[in-house]
């Protein structure tokens, strides 16, 4: 029988091997051991950024980015992450200037870009597009958002932020508010949170509820979850308030969007009136429209800019892991 130490080393080698060369398409592929491995590499990356500032473990490697939809944080932080690790970037932030405008297929576009790069990040408006693109590729593809489907790197950085802020995820009450129907970041985030002992409160207008199949997954994982339209009814018990934007671009009917816009606004006054905990945190993947009033920005509970910084850190960890250089 192998010793516990040898078994641990074996498990950590298997987890390391699991990341190398892997497409990051869905958080459903992650289990607690993979998450723990990612968080430990994130901590290593944070130390590099806060210490030397950068390193050269990805020297000679090229990241190609392919964005069919607008992006500020995902696109910029992946690029910054690659530079911080000593690698280089070929960025396509507007496919209108590429052969996509001439009608080139997704398959041909990604197979061409693969010839110039070692790893790719793609954002695309269609659910399932990342899985489809990955089926044509030998280099790892990271899903930077596929329509209203998933946004794994955002959810991983969100989970890391919760872990980083509280030193744990177990035992927390996490309230997710806004557009839970179309918000891909929260679709991915709850699939990560189901591995921990958390209570989830879903707050949204009735027509923007968390999709039923996801709620059923959480039920099967025996997670405590509630649904309400009233944010003030759950704010007092909340440790993490995760706020989302109403996803205007996903609505077919403009009137439906108008019905939802402005449903929830978190302000300092709202937090005070509803006895929000002094040590809770407020997160948002950004961009915000009006869901969090700017007076919250100076409150120590506003974690969204720390969350963005963790975006670069987590993406450094992901790039190093899929390229097999996290232990270099
Ligand atoms: C999110 C997205 O694109 O899904 N943004 C991001 O990547 N930080 C959230 C949003 O657009 O509302």
Tell me the strand order in the biggest sheet.
7-6-5-8-9
pLDDT average, as an integer? 95
Ligand roster: N-carbamoyl-L-aspartate
- Spans of at least 5 consecutive residues with low confidence: none
Total number of beta strands: 9
Radius of gyration: 20 Å
Report the principal-axis shape.
Answer: globular
Succession of helices and strands: HHEHEHEHEHEHEHEEHHEH
What distance separates the N and C termini? 30 Å
Strand content: 5-15%
Structural class: alpha/beta
Put simply, the count of helices is: 11
Biggest sheet architecture:
5 strands, parallel
Approximately how much helix is present in the residues? 25-40%
Core attributes:
alpha/beta, 5-stranded parallel sheet, 4-stranded parallel sheet, 11 helices, 14% strand, binds N-carbamoyl-L-aspartate, 328 residues
Describe the structure.
The structure is a single chain. The protein has helices at residues 4-19, 32-50, 73-84, 106-114, 129-134, 152-166, 184-193, 212-220, 254-260, 268-273, 304-322; strands at residues 62-67, 88-92, 119-124, 141-146, 173-177, 199-203, 224-228, 240-243, 281-283. The chain is an alpha/beta fold. The protein has a five-stranded parallel sheet with strand order 7-6-5-8-9, with helices on one face. A four-stranded parallel sheet has the order 2-1-3-4, with helices on both faces. The chain is globular. The site of N-carbamoyl-L-aspartate has 11 residues, from α3 and α7.
């Amino acid at each position: 029988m192998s010793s516990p130490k040898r078994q641990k080393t074996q498990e950590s080698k298997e987890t390391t091997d699991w990341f190398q060369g892997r497409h990051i398409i869905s958080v459903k592929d992650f289990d607690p051991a993979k998450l723990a491995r990612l968080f430990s590499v994130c901590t290593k990356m944070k130390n590099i950024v806060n210490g030397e500032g950068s390193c050269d473990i990805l020297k000679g490697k090229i990241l190609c980015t392919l964005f069919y939809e607008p992006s500020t944080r995902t696109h910029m932080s992946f690029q910054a992450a690659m530079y911080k690790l000593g690698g280089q970037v070929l960025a396509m932030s507007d496919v209108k200037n590429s052969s996509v405008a001439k009608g080139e297929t997704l398959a041909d576009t990604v197979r061409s870009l693969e010839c110039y790069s070692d790893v790719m990040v793609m954002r695309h408006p269609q659910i399932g597009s990342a899985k489809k693109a990955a089926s044509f590729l030998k280099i790892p593809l990271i899903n930077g958002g596929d329509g209203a489907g998933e946004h794994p790197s955002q959810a991983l950085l969100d989970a890391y932020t919760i872990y980083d802020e509280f030193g744990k995820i177990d035992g927390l009450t996490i309230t997710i508010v806004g557009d839970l129907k179309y918000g891909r970041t929260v679709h991915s985030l709850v699939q990560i949170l189901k591995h921990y002992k958390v209570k989830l409160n879903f707050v949204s207008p009735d027509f923007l509820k968390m999709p039923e199949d996801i709620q059923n997954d959480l039920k099967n994982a025996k997670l405590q979850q509630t649904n309400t339209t009233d944010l003030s009814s759950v704010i007092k018990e909340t440790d993490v308030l995760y706020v989302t934007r109403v996803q205007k671009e996903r609505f077919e009917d403009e009137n439906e969007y108008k019905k939802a816009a402005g449903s929830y606004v978190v302000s300092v006054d709202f937090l005070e009136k509803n006895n929000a905990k002094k040590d809770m945190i407020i997160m948002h993947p950004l961009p915000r429209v009006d869901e969090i009033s700017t007076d919250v920005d100076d409150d120590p509970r506003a974690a969204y800019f720390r969350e963005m910084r963790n975006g670069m850190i987590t993406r450094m960890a992901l790039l190093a892991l899929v390229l097999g250089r996290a232990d270099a």
